[in-house]
Amino acid sequence: MAVPKFVGESTIWKNIFSGRSIRKGSTHELLSRVPAFAHLSFRELKEVATIVHKREYRAGEPVFYQGDPGLGMYIIQEGSVAIVISEQDGEQKELAVLTEGDFFGELALLDESPRSAAALCKTDCLLIGFFRPDLMDLIDRKPALGIKIVSKLAEIVGERLRKTDKELSRLKSQMDALRAELERKTNGPQENSQEEHGRSPGA
Q1: pLDDT of 138-154, one tens digit each?
Q2: DSSP per-residue string spanning the chain
Q3: Mean pLDDT of the 80-94 span
Q4: I need a labelling partner for 193 at 20 to 30 A (CA). Which of 21, 132, 157, 175 fits?
């Protein structure tokens, strides 16, 4: 069953670093075009490439569900993935569709909190996974490299949070404007009615 698309697609879940072209090739070449790893040297990229995981998914298959423990981030090498949120009434809304070169779930590398949304494959996909245990092992083995990656991830998460704050402020302004308009329309007829009742019979 198709998932309803959220009206006014949220920029919170969009890849704010989109525009980078990721060509098919070796894993370290793909990683070099992803912001979390783009600042690494060729040798460092090859080191990371040895610990990431590639997996194929079928269309409609979940990468993870909302509420699942956060294990790591994913990079889309091929295909498209929908970010979906389930509301309290059970309705599902599609927040964004990510495609080749996009990445998601990076917060799980820094925080093991449950996933705030689900990731569902809209097409057959080939994803590259980079998981928290592998990052922790890398930090133990090669602290300088691990810290470089963590520092960049923190920068990316911080940028996403700033985008989130702006989005929430915009939505709040819209809600305030709608509320003011609703109050004006609701109170307007009452005020007019009071004015009519206040007139003298001969007016």
Answers
A1: 999 999 999 999 999 88
A2: -PPPBPSS--TTSS-TTTT----SS-HHHHHTTSTTTTTS-HHHHHHHHTT-EEEEE-TT-EEE-TTSBP-EEEEEEES-EEEEEE-TTS-EEEEEEE-TT-EE-GGGGT--PBPSSEEEESS-EEEEEEEHHHHHHHHHH-HHHHHHHHHHHHHHHHHHHHHHHHHHHHHHHHHHHHHHHHHHHHHHHHHHHHHHHTS-TT-
A3: 86
A4: 175
Tokens of 84: 């979906």
Neighbours of 156 (CB within 10 A): 21
- The mean predicted confidence, pLDDT, of the chain is 80
Query: How far is Cα 112 from Cα 110, in angstroms, rounded to an integer?
Result: 7
For 157-173, write each residue's pLDDT tens digit: 877 777 766 766 777 77
The CA distance from 129 to 126, in Å, is 10
Radius of gyration of the chain (CA): 24
Domain that includes residue 79, residue range: 27-161
- Cβ-in-10-Å burial (0-12, 13-18, 19+) of 117 comes to buried
Would you state the structure tokens that stand for residue 83, as one six-digit string?
Answer: 């970010």
- What CATH number does residue 136 fall under? 2.60.120.10
